[in-house]
Design brief:
about 600 residues, Zinc Finger, Delta Prime, domain 3, binds zinc ion
Length: about 600
């Protein structure tokens, strides 16, 4: 009897998972395709009983629970039935795990052929001691040795009529084909977050716990389809908290960082702000967070953004609060998908490396550096069909956008000339020295819209750097006199830019143009510089060439011209071509 799974008979000491194990098929959530078929088989007269079942699926999805329900249905004193009474002696003993005719074997700890022979083969021919059927539930059956499988196979080939085998496995591919072919197979799916929440709510009600809804969503996501994990997290959090269980308790149990920090980290990645990313990393470390777990969380957060940017429906995202999803949609719209995938890839690689390397902090800092320094522009326009969506999301998420737009960045480029172009109201409210962080994202969208309207205008704007966004005006700094003139001295161009920006922001806004020094410009991130080289070469060399993907050009340019010298050489090359094309230097 030592092979039987140990059962704790003391209800009070049982874990939530054991205490609230479903006792009828109707209680098993998220596996209706399995429970429905099994119920029908048990309901039919005479019951259609197969002698070997294989339950496949991830851990914690209800395989063993369902196996016990089959055993109950077959052996209930009122049965065979799909709805066991749960009151008779057999039902109660099966639920407790003490029924002599229902044997649960953990193959993980009984892999050898001798054990299989002792427990199964030798006794399989005896008639049931109490019930109608002897039910063998073999958990993690893929762990059996090949000899054990062979011994089992002989029994499966000619099973006595009163015996039912239920084999459960998380790794179906490791079960020999000869065994598979003799079983009726059922595939258990990961339980959806909605179903997990439904299950958690039942337990919370029974246990009279006070749990916030956001905390439930957090558990459901962390459980990754396993009801057992979800209940275990809930139980630990309930023990940890004094009173209401909030997301904070859940994060403490999971050792993970809060959504707020992940969101800020994502903002830093969008802005390619290495300093901020590293500061946030340090903040998490100082709070005692596990860096490896944080990378997993950040990777999963960015994965959600990727899914959102594709417009896919995701059950993981559906359980999040609406304002959180809005903020995520906004962040997703500011990323180039390819860069997002690259960053996720980088995070996964670092997380893998952390398993073999104890220098987690160093690895993490290095990764943050790589993710914010990638040569490819992080925020480059998406394909045209996505742009209107991105715009509407931006205006829908008003509060978070305001937050993004008021981040401080200390250095402001020097300005030689400052000329105001039709601000819709006085710009006195613009705070000097403040560079709104979110304007890079806005500018990406401006460039995308401009590119659709005029390749030439787009090329000119690539030279501009957005330096400030106030209530009334967007300030642009041009590195090149020619491009500056092209906007400032041409009413049509000026109006086009103003209309694009106003359209994206959702209210009339002016444009302020200034001419900055090359030095000032080179202190800014490589995004604009790289883009202006590729865009410039394209427009200058082939004015009528079809528009290409700016990101692709950015990569090839950066790959070919790695040093700053190369960049300025390319820029002067561009200027020379344009000047020769338009000797007057004036706008068209
Ligand atoms: Zn019963």
């Amino acid at each position: 009897m030592s092979l039987l799974t140990a059962q704790n008979s003391d209800f009070g000491l049982q874990s939530f998972y054991r205490r609230y194990r479903p006792q009828v098929f109707g209680d098993v959530v998220g596996q209706e395709h399995v429970t429905h078929t099994l119920s029908n088989a048990l309901k039919s007269d005479p019951p259609r009983v197969n002698h070997a079942y294989l339950f496949c699926g991830p851990r914690g999805t209800g395989k063993t629970t369902t196996a016990r329900l089959v055993a109950k249905g077959l052996n209930c004193e009122q049965g065979p039935t799909a709805t066991p009474c749960c009151k008779c002696d057999m039902c109660l003993r099966i639920a407790r795990g003490s029924a002599m005719d229902v044997l649960e074997i953990d193959a993980a700890s009984n892999t050898g052929v001798d054990k299989v022979r002792d427990v199964i083969i030798e006794k399989v021919n005896y008639a049931p001691a109490e019930g109608r059927y002897r039910v063998y539930i073999i958990d993690e059956v893929h762990q059996l040795s090949i000899h054990a499988f062979n011994a089992l196979l002989k029994t499966l080939e000619e099973p006595p009529p009163h015996v039912v085998f239920i084999l459960a496995t998380t790794e179906t591919h490791k079960v020999p084909g000869t065994i598979l072919s003799r079983c009726q197979r059922f595939d258990f799916r990961p339980i959806s977050p909605e179903h997990i929440i439904q299950r958690l709510k039942t337990v919370i009600k029974e246990e009279k716990l006070d749990v916030e809804l956001t905390a439930l969503g957090r558990i459901a996501r962390a459980a990754e389809g396993s009801a057992r994990d979800a209940l275990s997290i809930l139980e630990q959090a309930a023990a940890y908290s004094e009173g209401t269980v909030t997301e904070i308790e859940i994060e403490a149990v999971l050792g993970s960082v809060g959504h707020e920090l992940l969101s800020e980290m994502t903002d830093a990645l969008i802005r390619k702000d290495t300093r901020q990313a590293v500061l946030l990393l340090h903040r998490a470390v100082n709070q005692g967070k596990d860096i490896q777990q944080m990378f997993l969380d950040l990777g999963s957060h960015l994965r959600d953004l990727l899914i959102l940017s594709l417009g896919c429906d995701s059950q993981d995202i559906n359980v999040l609060p609406a304002e959180m999803v809005n903020k995520m949609k906004e962040q997703a719209s500011l990323f180039n998908r390819r860069s997002l995938a690259d960053i996720i890839d980088e995070l996964c690689r670092a997380e893998r490396e952390m398993r073999a390397n104890s220098q987690h902090r160093l690895l993490a800092e290095l990764t943050m550096f790589k993710c914010t320094q990638s040569r490819e522009p992080v925020s480059v326009s998406e394909p045209a069909r996505d742009e209107p969506k991105a715009v509407s999301i931006l205006s829908a998420a008003e509060p978070s956008r305001e937050r993004l737009l008021t981040k401080r960045i200390p250095s402001e480029p020097k300005v030689h000339v400052e000329a105001e172009v039709e601000a819709s109201a006085p710009v006195a409210s613009a705070t000097p020295g403040v560079l709104p962080a979110g304007i890079d994202g806005l500018w990406t969208q401006v460039l995308a819209v401009a590119r659709k309207q005029s390749v030439r205008l787009h090329a000119v704007l690539l030279d501009a750097t957005p330096v400030n966004l106030s209530e009334n005006a967007l300030s642009l700094e041009f590195a090149n006199q020619f491009h500056y003139d092209h906007i400032v001295e041409n009413t049509a161009n000026k109006d086009t830019v103003r209309q694009i920006v106003s359209g994206l922001i959702g209210k009339p806004i002016g444009i302020k143009c200034s001419l900055g020094s090359q030095t000032a410009k080179s202190t800014r991130s490589g995004v604009t510089r790289t883009a202006s080289v590729s865009g410039g070469e394209r427009t200058g060399g082939q004015p009528d060439a079809p528009d290409k993907d700016a990101a692709e050009n950015g990569v090839s340019a950066a790959d070919g011209v790695s040093a700053a010298d190369g960049v300025s050489a390319a820029m002067s090359l561009f200027d020379a071509k344009v000047v020769s094309e338009r000797p007057s230097g004036q706008s068209s």
